[in-house]
Amino acid sequence: MRILVVNPNTTASMTEKACIAARLVASEGTEIVAVTSPSGPVSIEGYYDEAMAVPGMLQAIQSQQDFDAVVIACFDDTGLDAARCLTDKPVIGIGEAAYRVASMLSNKFSVVTTLARSVPALEHNLHRYGMERQCIRVRSSEIPVLELEDEGSGAVEKIAQEIEQAITEDRAEAIVLGCAGMVDLADKLSEQFSIPVLDGVTCAVSLCESLVRLKARTTRQGGYAPPPAEKIRSCLV
Amino acid sequence: MRILVVNPNTTASMTEKACIAARLVASEGTEIVAVTSPSGPVSIEGYYDEAMAVPGMLQAIQSQQDFDAVVIACFDDTGLDAARCLTDKPVIGIGEAAYRVASMLSNKFSVVTTLARSVPALEHNLHRYGMERQCIRVRSSEIPVLELEDEGSGAVEKIAQEIEQAITEDRAEAIVLGCAGMVDLADKLSEQFSIPVLDGVTCAVSLCESLVRLKARTTRQGGYAPPPAEKIRSCLV
Amino acid sequence: MRILVVNPNTTASMTEKACIAARLVASEGTEIVAVTSPSGPVSIEGYYDEAMAVPGMLQAIQSQQDFDAVVIACFDDTGLDAARCLTDKPVIGIGEAAYRVASMLSNKFSVVTTLARSVPALEHNLHRYGMERQCIRVRSSEIPVLELEDEGSGAVEKIAQEIEQAITEDRAEAIVLGCAGMVDLADKLSEQFSIPVLDGVTCAVSLCESLVRLKARTTRQGGYAPPPAEKIRSCLV
Amino acid sequence: MRILVVNPNTTASMTEKACIAARLVASEGTEIVAVTSPSGPVSIEGYYDEAMAVPGMLQAIQSQQDFDAVVIACFDDTGLDAARCLTDKPVIGIGEAAYRVASMLSNKFSVVTTLARSVPALEHNLHRYGMERQCIRVRSSEIPVLELEDEGSGAVEKIAQEIEQAITEDRAEAIVLGCAGMVDLADKLSEQFSIPVLDGVTCAVSLCESLVRLKARTTRQGGYAPPPAEKIRSCLV
Amino acid sequence: MRILVVNPNTTASMTEKACIAARLVASEGTEIVAVTSPSGPVSIEGYYDEAMAVPGMLQAIQSQQDFDAVVIACFDDTGLDAARCLTDKPVIGIGEAAYRVASMLSNKFSVVTTLARSVPALEHNLHRYGMERQCIRVRSSEIPVLELEDEGSGAVEKIAQEIEQAITEDRAEAIVLGCAGMVDLADKLSEQFSIPVLDGVTCAVSLCESLVRLKARTTRQGGYAPPPAEKIRSCLV
Amino acid sequence: MRILVVNPNTTASMTEKACIAARLVASEGTEIVAVTSPSGPVSIEGYYDEAMAVPGMLQAIQSQQDFDAVVIACFDDTGLDAARCLTDKPVIGIGEAAYRVASMLSNKFSVVTTLARSVPALEHNLHRYGMERQCIRVRSSEIPVLELEDEGSGAVEKIAQEIEQAITEDRAEAIVLGCAGMVDLADKLSEQFSIPVLDGVTCAVSLCESLVRLKARTTRQGGYAPPPAEKIRSCLV
């Protein structure tokens, strides 16, 4: 099976990082195709970036012919609903994926994300997915997304500190890392704190494999009904 | 004061209709500047259209120099959060405006919108605004947005029928018309059914006037913090 | 237009303060008529005061012949529902008004009110208006209402301290001042903390102007149906 | 023990009916003292009546010296919060009492009340008590309160019809009768429909006995803190 | 009347403690019959214990012929729904009972229980009963259930400390003690902190007396419909 | 990998049906081990059956040495929380699995289950998983579980009829079949109605594979902390 991992921002190094993580978790026989959005912001931190990233991301999906499922590799699940209108293949956002996995492993979890400006958008998603009771708190480490790439930024320490507080103050039983750029930290932190620490990219790839094996299709009725072809055409001009 | 009315779809006749309605309700001394999005879908019916409409709409706002408040003239409040990041001037969506006015005039209301495919997006908005208990139901009349322009479409009759059911079945005390293209029907229907029937364009213009008089500013902290200038520049390229 | 500002407590100096604030924000052509309740408590701090204030307040409204909208100038929106049964002119409480304005300017806000005993009543209102997710916390400064009139009470400092905590602990993006007696502090505090700090009296006056311009009427169906005339007569005896 | 049953409306025949029902359910050794509000509306149907009834009802409570608990004998729990500020003796509303009993006997129940205009106030109460999921629906039989006294009004038939629909349409497992004036119907209807049909007066008297035996006291902290004596005095003038 | 108090764990000394407390609060003429579950865990701390305790507890109920109501004397209301299917006599859990009493005496309360591992189960119950807004927080004192029996364990001090924090941090107006083994502490702590401190056993006994006097029956429709006799027989083999 | 499929009722033919369905969806290299509970009810229809089934089911799990994940093959997710305390291997209930898959494929779904008496238990689960907004309605077809095995029962027709109503009345975009015994109907009905019709057994097996590939472990902190070994021993005696 072929899973399309779309990075909705334009930073190719983040796409690559996500791709490596995706391949590590993918089953034998699953091919990971990673694409970078051709246009939009270099990172997604808040509502404006999110909105500007969607058309490029949708274009990246439409440019691909042959895939069995789509992973949207940004933690705020950029354009998830719009993407589901474009294809009946399963589409999963990495935020959604991590939340759903966390909710099958724990009673309550906290999220550790990058900047405070991203928190309200994540809280709205959590509410939409019905996770407002299982997710106790969205914490921000105040590390910009692109600094996660930089070894000297002290990012890991700051994230670890927030996890520690989530365990003692929020009584979190699991942690969700709130940025695709943290994908390489999950295992280490999980071991360090002896609770599940989840990354969205791997969760989403694995859930996509599940849905494909189930031959599951996104509904074509109601909110995800496909837009008329002429509308799609006119938007792409 | 100058209120910018942005039509996030590209159909100029709808912009004009909204503009006329806006001017009718505006106070003396309020200038209405109506702009049409330069790119994106011809009408907004569901998630895909909504997502594709945002960049054009934001560009339309950014192209204007001088305004005191912004009305987003699409009932699903397209790109409202992103627009609030771009300016500290008040920004109001017409869906939000109509819901807030309805909730000051009644205990419970129902919405009558166009197509079923738009309903889930509206329901998510209602939840986000905390209106999920005051709004009893979102009804769809199954009239496409652009047919509202067409006299022979039987649109008014179908909408009236849904209102009647909202009153008897939902026990609605007020009605919100769920499309900018219905702006000219509110008064007539309100009289016909002897309950408040609200249109979003006029509600939003009037609430904008309020906020401007209050010298109210959108917060610059948290989720609406302005994106760094270089990010805005890079997105616009 | 004529807006009736009713102070539901019997302290005339508070009526005057509200009246001055109302006039400052009112549009040209809007006349503010301020009335003090003829009977009931000198200040409204909690459920008992609230209940005892309503008949006097309703009588104050009924004694007026000619108005286009009513502002109830007590932050717990004393008797709002009952007042809406008495007239189809818009009636807005200052608590409600401030919450609705705050929710159009920010993702999340906190309230700073007077005494702890008032907090549960405000929390019930917030829930009723659907604001329980947007309002993070109702904080009490432990300043009795009437001490707000007294320069030497240290009231401003205590309120400022609560605002500071609301920003750092609650991650509030805006603040609502929870008492009509704080009306003169909003601008100063807003500047000091660089976030919207809202007062209910000005918000309510301005929203009333909006509703009047919209020719909006309180519904006469359901919960706000007018009581039979003989019942009103018998209650007034 | 002495239980004070306060009728917040001024119709003495309803007080007597409630008193008879209360005595039937009271334990040996429990004295029922029934008082009628000295002023206010003859029946309570909606927000206005409710607000106008409270001061008379509070006065009726304050006029009594010696009681162990208070039942507020109106289904919208008129002035319940205010009454709890006046005494640390338990105070229970008949609406609240019936809801709490229903929730110990069934998974879900429906309410059958008098007029549609009363429904929103009841729905707000249900929400406040956390009953919004256990109560499926508040149905109105469109019988005015005082017609319940009138044998020829067809009231019983209309109520029975609503119960039947509640069972089939709402899948209600129990029914709450939503008016003090229906107190004499509960047993008959319960037998007729083979599900619990509950009346608030008897539920409240019985719960009061429980609370008195538990030596339970209404908290004096927070929202129910007693108002200062001088404030109570000034309100009574 | 005869009230059956079932201890769902197998520790007879806890049954006895509950029985003594039950008898102290019971009315004259009420007989308390206390039974210990014949099989299952020695104490109930978390989901596993709870699940393993239910069949023994149901068997203990079925072994009794003659009772008017049942109290399930474990704070997580072990097997409450299942027990309600077995008899139309009222069945009340001590957790449920204490929550319902607390909600009639205060606006908001906190719970102080034993171990952190029990907290999620209690939170689920609170949600199910609609108490998630009235209960601010479930605190754990980290005292194992059986250590409550041990004078030297410092249990009372730890519980008192949590109550103190509940009052200052949670603004709790009342406290619910979250374990049947704390039944003897309620009065002392209530006096010490001048707010209602409630124990479930006494609350449940007293509410049972109410329900019996009301001749209230658990519904036989829907979720509490009795299982077919042959199923009960086959399960007991 | 080895997935343990536990049938919590004692009907071996249902275990076999689930096992066949599980094998059809399992990946190459996944071994399905299906076990039947050694004691308890022959089918699970409501609270009593559910409670009586748990110890047998937990024993069935404990009797197995070597597995990588557990599927609880009853739609009410019998004993899910207790099972998660016994092992850090992922444990998924088939109800939970189907709801989570449905929520990744649609905005809103309805459930079609067997008997009305099971509905409240399912509604409680849905609430606990945060699905109360995404699941519009739980419908019962009034077919007892074991009649699903019987060709002449008209079961398929009754289920199809409920699906049809779910689409037209509930505006469901997907359907979840609410009983393990319906596992063989999903594909056919999905095709017939052109929307996703999901069965829990296949969803759960596939999600288990995901979690195993993710090396995900159930948290050992908080509500799922393992009970002390001596407690487990004592319960098993």
From TrEMBL, chains A, B, C, D, E, F:
Gene3D superfamilies for the chain: 3.40.50.12500
GO molecular function: amino-acid racemase activity; hydantoin racemase activity
Assigned EC number: 5.1.99.5
Broadest EC class assigned to this enzyme: isomerase
Classification via Pfam families: Asp_Glu_race
Catalytic activity: D-5-isobutylhydantoin = L-5-isobutylhydantoin; D-5-benzylhydantoin = L-5-benzylhydantoin; a D-5-monosubstituted hydantoin = a L-5-monosubstituted hydantoin
Similarity remark: Belongs to the HyuE racemase family.
Name of the protein in its database record: Hydantoin racemase
Organism this protein belongs to: Vibrio mangrovi
Taxonomic lineage of the native organism: Bacteria, Pseudomonadati, Pseudomonadota, Gammaproteobacteria, Vibrionales
